[in-house]
Structure formats: structure tokens, C-alpha cells
């Protein structure tokens, strides 16, 4: 090895050492966040924070385990290098969600109007100030009378669920896949309550709505990775342009919604038993930001439902 090559090698090694040292001290400083504030926290793992369980264990199980180790009203964790406070007190949760909600408008998860309109334009993930406008418009839609009507529709579907369990599993003494069954129930319920479409995946697995829904709820490594990044590491999700809903699902929901609208406009029939008419009124009343574009209306109205 000549002198020039040796110098280059030493320089590269020095750069690597400096970079890793900087990363180490960056995380070390960040991981003192809760300690410096006197708040008990879960010990983080370098780079991953408290997300080292990801893809090996359920998030719900992990939060349950953390809750058992922390009996206080709140405790700290780290989502990668970002500190996060976990609230366990119902009183504090009520203050955050109700009394002081104007200080906690935006959720941490990643959303993008451009790459994932269906996953972004809904009350759960939409950002301010659009969130406030949507919330104000949606609140009158859910009066006690309207909720009663929706509940009646859900109860009809629940009877189909009970009948299917009895017919296909109890009578035949067959094991039951509860996740699939309840996914079918959710799919049928959305079809009933939002679109007014009386299709039943519980009675007919070839239901077109279930065809697209089952792919949305199917758990795969790639979908698990997408969900984890979107909810816990939005910086990475933004860089990779990950989506909560696939493009085929987005296009199908768009087609389904507007197909229902056109059918009702052509035959002159309306129905207050589902949310289509209410969502159409919302579309007219709600003003989206210019960058969202008018093409987002259908995604917004479905997501709001």
C-alpha cells in the first residue's frame, strides 16, 4: 500500500469514526430528554428508541407491557429519536382531547394529499387548519337521530354476522377466523352506512366491496412496515412516500362513491339513512385549500364517513 492510498484510507476511517461519534452523542443527548424533565421513561435502544420491537411484536401488546411497568398517569418513550409522552390518565386524556384540544390539533402520523389523498383527507389524519373546518362541518351530521338510524343499519348487519357464525362455524364445529369475520362485518357496514349499498360479504364472499377491502386489511411484511413508518416514524414515511391506502383501493372508493351519486341523481331518489347525501352537502359547504384541488372532494367525503 503506497503512502497516498494509506492517507485516503485513514481519512475515510476518520470520517466514519467522526460520523458515528456524532450520531452517538446526538442520540445520547436526545435520550436524556425525559430524564432532564424528571419524567419516568422506558429505556431506549440506540437509533430505534423504543421501537426495537417493531415487526416482531404487536404495538398494542407492547403498549400494554409498558403500561404494566408504569403505573403513573404518564410516562415517556422515544419514537426513534423523537420523545413521546404516553398518557394513561382518563382525566388528562379528556383535557387533551376536549378542554385543551386546540393545543393538540395535528396527529403525529404522516399524511400527504398528493401521494395518499384517501389516507390523508380524513378527520383522523388531516392537518390544521383543514381539520378544524372538517370537524365543524361534520359535527351536525352526527345528531342523536342520525346516529340512531346508522345504528339500526349496523344492527341489521350484526344479525348477518351472528347467523354466519352459527351456520358456518358453530353448527359445523369449525375453527373461526375472527379477524376475517369482523373485517367482513366492517366492510358491509361501511357499504350500508356510507354508500347505502346493500352488499354482504358475510353472505357472499364475492362482494366487490369485500374484494378490495380484504386486500386493505391483509397483513403482510410490507404493509406492516408502511403502517409502522406512517404512525411512528413519519419522517421516513415522507421520504419513501408511503401510503395508508393503495392506489387500487383509492381508485375503487372514488369510483364507488361517485357511482352512487350519479345513480341517485339519475333516478331522483335520496336517502337520509346513509351518509351519501350528508357527505354531498359537506362537499358543497367545505372549502378545501387550493393545493388540495377539487379532485380531492370525493376522497374527503368518503373518509369523513
Automatic annotation (TrEMBL):
EC number(s) recorded for this UniProt protein: 1.14.14.1
Cofactor: heme
Superkingdom of the organism of origin: Eukaryota
InterPro entries, A to Z: Cyt_P450, Insect_CytP450_Detox
This protein's UniProt keywords: Heme, Iron, Membrane, Metal-binding, Monooxygenase, Oxidoreductase, Transmembrane, Transmembrane helix
GO molecular function: heme binding; iron ion binding; oxidoreductase activity, acting on paired donors, with incorporation or reduction of molecular oxygen, reduced flavin or flavoprotein as one donor, and incorporation of one atom of oxygen
Keyword Ubl conjugation belongs to the record: no
Membrane topology classification: Peripheral membrane protein
Principal localisation: endoplasmic reticulum
Location within or outside the cell: Endoplasmic reticulum membrane; Microsome membrane
Protein name: unspecific monooxygenase
Amino acid at each position: 500500500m503506497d503512502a497516498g492510498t494509506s492517507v485516503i484510507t485513514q481519512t475515510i476511517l476518520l470520517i466514519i469514526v467522526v460520523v458515528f461519534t456524532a450520531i452517538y452523542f446526538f442520540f445520547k443527548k436526545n435520550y436524556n430528554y425525559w430524564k432532564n424533565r424528571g419524567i419516568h421513561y422506558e429505556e431506549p435502544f440506540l437509533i430505534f428508541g423504543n421501537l426495537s420491537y417493531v415487526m416482531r411484536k404487536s404495538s398494542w401488546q407492547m403498549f400494554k407491557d409498558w403500561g404494566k411497568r408504569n403505573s403513573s398517569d404518564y410516562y415517556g418513550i422515544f419514537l426513534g429519536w423523537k420523545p413521546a409522552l404516553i398518557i394513561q390518565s382518563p382525566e388528562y386524556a379528556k383535557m387533551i382531547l376536549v378542554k385543551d384540544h386546540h393545543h393538540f390539533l395535528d396527529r403525529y402520523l404522516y399524511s400527504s394529499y398528493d401521494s395518499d389523498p384517501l389516507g390523508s383527507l380524513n378527520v383522523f389524519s388531516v392537518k390544521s387548519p383543514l381539520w378544524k373546518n372538517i370537524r365543524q362541518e361534520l359535527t351536525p351530521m352526527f345528531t342523536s337521530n342520525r346516529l340512531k338510524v346508522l345504528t339500526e343499519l349496523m344492527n341489521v348487519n350484526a344479525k348477518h354476522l351472528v347467523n354466519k357464525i352459527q351456520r358456518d362455524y358453530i353448527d359445523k364445529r369449525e375453527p373461526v377466523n375472527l379477524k376475517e369475520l369482523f373485517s367482513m362485518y366492517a366492510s358491509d357496514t361501511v357499504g350500508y352506512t356510507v354508500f347505502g349499498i346493500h352488499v354482504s360479504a358475510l353472505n357472499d364472499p364475492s362482494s366487490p366491496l369485500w374484494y378490495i377491502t380484504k386486500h386493505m386489511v391483509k397483513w403482510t411484511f410490507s404493509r406492516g412496515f408502511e403502517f409502522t413508518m406512517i404512525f411512528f416514524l413519519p419522517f421516513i414515511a415522507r421520504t419513501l412516500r408511503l401510503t395508508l391506502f393503495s392506489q387500487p383501493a383509492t381508485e375503487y372508493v372514488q369510483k364507488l362513491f361517485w357511482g352512487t351519486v350519479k345513480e341517485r341523481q339519475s333516478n331522483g331518489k335520496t336517502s337520509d339513512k346513509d351518509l351519501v347525501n350528508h357527505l354531498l352537502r359537506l362537499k358543497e359547504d367545505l372549502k378545501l385549500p387550493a393545493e388540495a384541488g377539487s379532485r380531492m372532494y370525493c376522497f374527503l367525503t368518503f373518509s369523513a364517513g
